[in-house]
């Protein structure tokens, strides 16, 4: 089972909310899709937001800057956006931990 878990974790090189939910369901017996909701965030909204943050992270890490004349393009991540992402991820961690308390 440990070998299979290692293989599954390696598949997360291309992560997403669905893969994460399946991993926790298969190996911890916890349904995160039901647990990932709080305040004004339902489970679908949480999964969509997590997927968009994962995509943004991939875009930022794997992009190459184009050399252009004129002013530089703004960075896709702003301070305000980063603060919102950190707040969201903290809430997601809290919701995930609560799922294990049930």
Report on this model:
By secondary structure, this protein is mainly alpha-helical. It has one domain (2-60, 75-101). It has 5 helices and no strands. The longest helix has 23 residues, at 79-101. The radius of gyration is 17 Å and the shape is flat. The two termini are 24 Å apart.
Structure, briefly:
The protein is mainly α and 102 residues long. Helix content is 67%, strand content 0%. The chain has helices spanning 2-10, 17-28, 32-35, 43-62, 79-101.
Rounded radius of gyration (Å): 17 Å
How is the main sheet built? none
Run of helices and strands: HHHHH
Based on Cα principal axes, name the global outline: flat
Task: Kindly give the count of domains.
Answer: 1
Contiguous uncertain segments of 5+ residues: none
- For the termini, the CA-CA separation is 24 Å
Question: Which characteristics define this entry?
Answer:
0% strand, 102 residues, mainly alpha
Ordered list of secondary-structure elements with their pairings:
Blueprint: H1 2-10, H2 17-28, H3 32-35, H4 43-62, H5 79-101
